[in-house]
Amino acid sequence: ALDKELATLVDGYAITLVTKSVEPRTMRVLPRGNWMDDSGEVVTPAAPQFMTNAPIENRRATRLDLAQWLIARDNPLTARVFVNRLWKRFFGTGLSSVLDDLGAQGEWPTHPELLDWLAVEFMDSGWDVKHIVRLVTTSTAYAQSSNPRPDLTEIDPYNRLLARQTAGRLDAELVRDNALAVSGLLVSKIGGRSVRPYQPEGYYAHMNFPKRTYQVDTDVNLYRRGLYTHWQRSFLHPSMLAFDAPSREECTAQRAVSNTPQQALVLLNDPIYVEAARAFAERIIREGGETAPARIAWALRESLTRTPEDFEVQVLTELMADHLQHFVANPDDAKRALSIGVKPAPSDIATTELAAWTSVARAILNLHETITRS
User: Fold this and answer.
1) What is the sign of the dihedral through the CA atoms of 347, 348, 352 and 357?
2) Separation of alpha carbons 112 and 94, rounded Å
3) Concatenated DSSP letters of 199-232
4) What does each of the 374 residues of the chain score in pLDDT, given as a tens digit?
5) Cα distance between residue 295 and residue 310, in whole Å
6) CA gap 253, 287 in Å, rounded
7) How far apart are CA 193 and CA 11, in angstroms?
8) Residue 360: which of 203, 183, 195 has the closest Cα?
9) Which of 34, 39, 49, 354 is deepest in the core (most CB within 10 A)?
10) Phi and psi torsions of 372, nearest 5°
11) 8 A C-beta contact, residue 356 and residue 327
12) Phi and psi at residue 19, in whole multiples of 5°?
């Protein structure tokens, strides 16, 4: 390797920088897997032989060559795989349900012409992800209701023919983000270090070499998106674990979706959801109107993005009245209910009133419809 010396003058001091051009490390085929035998043929960067190789002659392929090969017009696989995964995000199932093996060993696409057209449109747009997202989400297929019709359910129980929209639970990170967004607490800052939301005390007690400690954030980092939550391998955040977040120990192309009692317990008892309910209750009181039915109708529209049914307003109005009566008779219970979380309760709203509306907000944030994409 050729050494180069570069001298520069910084604040009157001569600093010598020594750089070396390092030759790529030679990799060889190991005869019978023997790592001490270096007699095998040299392996150079290239695409698998069964795929179309990039036309590279008289030089070693680079990462730029790899990138150009991935997006070459005669290599449509990259675009097809991407739009298939994107379709899964918006319709619950990809045009081919096998996301990580789009080929002869996977499932044949239900709409192969549509998959091909989307792949070509993606490439023609300059690989513009926003363009494809806009194209899919403004389509008639996406705008359909997810309410099943009995005749369609019998003919196409898994909705592979796209006669309706497919409902599905939000991913673990989005369940939390949605509650924070509805409450008004969500911080939309992009980037930065991992954040540490509320977590059960002693959760890392059995971790050794070295012992782990967990210090909960006490500022706005508590309300950042779930994407930025600190990730401890084999000790996932309990809220994420309950809603089927993967461990990241291996690549997960498609997450499992379960329905367990632990999920309801997380939504009811995790401090971040209790605090989000209290913040949402404050919004309901300030922005929802003067009467209980008006406030409940506003809260349901805000959280479910639809006009509520009369019976829903009636049930939640009765819930609010019952809890208000309880908290008026037991003011200490109201104080305890409002003490969860670092965000202080507002001083200009009666404790008993805010506690009663917090109960209503908790019920709304725990609705199946609140955590379901439909």
Assistant:
1) negative
2) 11
3) --TTTTTT-TTTT-------SGGGGB-GGGB---
4) 434 444 444 444 444 444 455 556 778 889 988 988 988 888 888 777 777 666 777 888 888 888 888 888 888 889 999 999 999 999 999 999 999 888 888 899 999 999 999 999 999 999 999 999 999 999 999 999 888 888 888 999 999 999 999 888 999 999 999 999 999 999 999 999 999 999 988 888 888 778 888 889 989 999 999 999 998 888 889 999 999 998 888 888 888 889 999 999 999 999 999 999 999 999 999 999 999 999 999 999 999 999 999 999 999 999 999 999 999 999 999 999 999 999 899 999 999 999 999 999 999 999 999 999 87
5) 13
6) 41
7) 33
8) 183
9) 354
10) -120, 135
11) yes
12) -120, 150
- Alpha carbon separation from 206 to 210, 234, 240 (Å, rounded): 10, 11, 19
What residues contact residue 249 under an 8 Å CB cut-off, 6+ apart?
233, 234
Spatial CB neighbours of 254, under 8 Å, sequence gap ≥ 6 = 88, 99, 100
Q: Tokens 């949605």 label which residue?
A: 178
Q: Which amino acid is at 148?
A: P
3-class secondary-structure state, position 184:
coil
CA dist 239 and 186 (Å) reads 17
Residues 116, 95: Cα–Cα separation, whole Å:
11
Q: How far apart are CA 150 and CA 153, in angstroms?
A: 5
User: Which tokens sit at 228?
Assistant: 């930025």
Crossing angle of helices 271-287/292-304, nearest 10°? Answer: 120
pTM score: 0.80
Q: Are 185 and 150 contacting, i.e. CB atoms less than 8 angstroms apart?
A: no
Residue length, the chain?
A: 374
Task: Judge contact between 297 and 322, C-beta under 8 A.
Answer: no
